[in-house]
Amino acid sequence: MNSYTLNIDGSTTLLALICLVLFIGTVIIYRRVVPEISFSQKTGLVILRSAALIMIVFFLFEPIWTMISGKKIHPICRTYLDNSISMSLTDAAGNRKTIYNDVVSAINTRKIKNKFIIYKFGESVSEHNLDQKLSLKDASTNLSEPMRKMRRNLYEDNACASLFITDGCFNTGENPIYEAMKFNRPIYIIGIGDTAAPKDASVKGILTNEVVYKESPIPVNANISISGFPADSISAVLYEDGKQISKQKISFTPDNNNYSLVFEYTPKTSGNKKLTVKIPTLKGEITDKNNTKSVFVKVLEDKQKIALFAGAPTPDISFINSVIRRDKGIELKEYIQKSADQFYVIPTKESISSAETIVMIDFPNKYTPDGVLKNIAALLDKGIPILFFAGYNTDYQKLQILIDYLPFNTLRTTRKEYLASPDANSYSLNSPIMRINDDEGDIALWNSLPPVYKTETFVKVKPESDFVLGVKVNKISISEPLIVTRNFEGRKSVAVLAYGLFRWKLMGQGAQEARGIDDSPDIFSIFVSNSMKWLSTDNRTKTFICKTTKQQYSMSEPVVFNAQLYDAAFTPIDKGEVFVRIYNNDFEQNLNLEALGNGRYSGQIEGLKRGDYKFSAIAKNERLLIAKDNGIFSVGDISPEYDDLRMNKSLLTEIAKRSGGKYYDAQSAEKAINDIIENKNFVPYGITLREEMHIWEKWYFLVLAIVFFTTEWFLRKRYGLL
């Protein structure tokens, strides 16, 4: 039902009285005219002048015309179709593409007309027409992005539910469970694919240092997965820039799917190198596009210099040093306090100036000279990374000198200590320093570690930092962090807010070996090694950094370059020019990066063919060459879609459960549609629309008044009135 009202700014009675006076006055004026005209002519002139005068007076009272109407908003269901590569594969359940098309066809278009809004998702989210076929070519799946957009659009329309048709294998973006918990509408999911591991052999991952040193051997760890095949053996080969440098044999059996290999790699020349692990194609594999995996390393001429500071000799120092010294490409200098402000080796400003990484163990203490801390702060201000281990004697008040370079702020602290156990979850594995076997089993490995010591030190994780590992006390999770990392404005830091970490070595791997279990992972050593690898950077090019967003792209993806440019004082340069040359043996193209502000530059190139590419970047300021950088990347069939080929039913079920929806197999697609439409909340609701028109602001009403006056004047002249 609609209603209309007219409101004015003032007294209605006064307005009516003025209008009446104007009308009567106009009648009196035209009562006697010379020459005399007919009554009808007088009436017309009275109406024109009265109308014009009344309209002008009416505008002075600022009239507003209000219209109130009702509208019914019909319910809709946002439907998201997975458009990624994995949806086109064939597994034990059959050809996913065929099953997928059958499910989409099962959505009765008559039943869902104007009720289901269709989207497709993979690398991004966009609207889709059911009359068009999906390409199923997106190189990655971001399952959290459509859920994030659902929340943004929640109140734009009557979206009573959402439907996802997917295999649940997300490989970019955040964990979708977190987004599902924020979305207060039911999410219904139709799963496509088989939960059993298909017949497949793949290189799941490669782990090695990002920065290495010439003539210094390093381990290259490769994780191989083989499932669905009878017992046999194959060879895994390690290549450097396409040249074979090592080979290892894998004997596999049906009851074991995962195999770990360790290659030794000794770079002979400096520069950017591509390391590739490749296994042969087995007969009947679901795909052979995951039989190869590559990583890129930067080989430097000289050793990485690390400065270690400690408040006193402790077992943690010995165990951490033993891990660091395994890397022959590292030159380690120790600065350990022996009493009060005395060091075994004095850390002068000159002696620590060449350090490329800082390690602090139970440091500083209350006796540490402020001058030493200020010298360390000067290094950290240049972008040198830091690995911080808390201790019983750590003086957090003195640590404030370095707090700008750490991933946390201290709230309050006491020296009362307690035992704390690691509390890992799926989010923890997003950090590279936490990866042991690079699979979901890593969570259980971390949570099985013995407790370590922690003082009652309460900290606040900085907004740009990552809460990597939490704390459990007596099996109860508390909100305090155990491990925090930070990668902000080119500065990296790792903080371990506990001590007695040697217990992870002795009571973890050591206890397992005492029981005769020889293949137990050395989590302590892997963690320290991972942290050092993550922190390692080539600090000699810090004033100008140009990188691709990743080092391996599929052919359907644009290659994105990001650069940062600073002056000698590390002040961002906004008015510079950054040029990138992309090339290989058969190709060369130049790219100018666009300035984004705050010293940041970005650009992208599309349509590159399969192959390895190098790039060289030059930064100029006012036409003067100021810095260079270079790198390497690869374009090919590599896609995270091939990393996990099973339908992730447990994830999809959990998302549906937490949102109040329901999970369905592909055979129950029609039932899913019926359940959504028949849901008691899938109903329209009414809204009230209020619209106001400010009549006094409309120019055409004023024009109408002028037209009345003009017409009156014209008629008076025509009638010959004086």
How is the largest sheet built, in terms of strand order? 20-19-18-21-22-27-26-25-23-24
Rough outline: elongated
Work out the number of β strands: 37
How confident overall, as mean pLDDT? 84
Given helix and strand content, the structural type is alpha/beta
Beta-strand proportion: 35-45%
Instruction: Provide the low-confidence segments as ranges.
Output: none
Compute the gyration radius: what is it? 36 Å
End-to-end separation in angstroms reads 53 Å
Helix content: 10-25%
Biggest sheet statistics: 10 strands, mixed
Number of helices: 15
Which secondary structure elements does this structure contain, and how are they paired or packed?
Elements: E1 3-7, H1 12-29, H2 39-60, E2 64-73, E3 76-82, E4 90-91, E5 94-95, H3 96-106, H4 109-112, E6 116-121, E7 125-127, H5 144-152, E8 159-166, H6 176-182, E9 187-191, E10 200-207, E11 211-213, E12 218-227, E13 232-240, E14 243-252, E15 258-265, E16 271-278, E17 292-300, E18 304-310, H7 315-324, E19 330-339, E20 342-343, H8 349-352, E21 357-361, H9 370-380, E22 386-389, E23 408-423, H10 441-447, E24 452-461, E25 465-473, E26 476-488, E27 491-496, H11 502-514, H12 523-535, E28 544-548, E29 552-554, E30 559-565, E31 577-584, E32 587-597, E33 600-605, E34 611-621, E35 624-636, H13 649-659, E36 663-665, H14 669-678, E37 685-694, H15 699-719
Parallel strand pairs: 3-6, 3-8, 8-9, 9-36, 11-17, 18-19, 18-21, 21-22, 22-27, 29-35
Antiparallel strand pairs: 1-2, 2-37, 4-5, 6-7, 10-12, 12-15, 13-14, 13-16, 16-17, 19-20, 23-24, 23-25, 25-26, 26-27, 28-30, 30-33, 31-32, 31-34, 32-33, 34-35
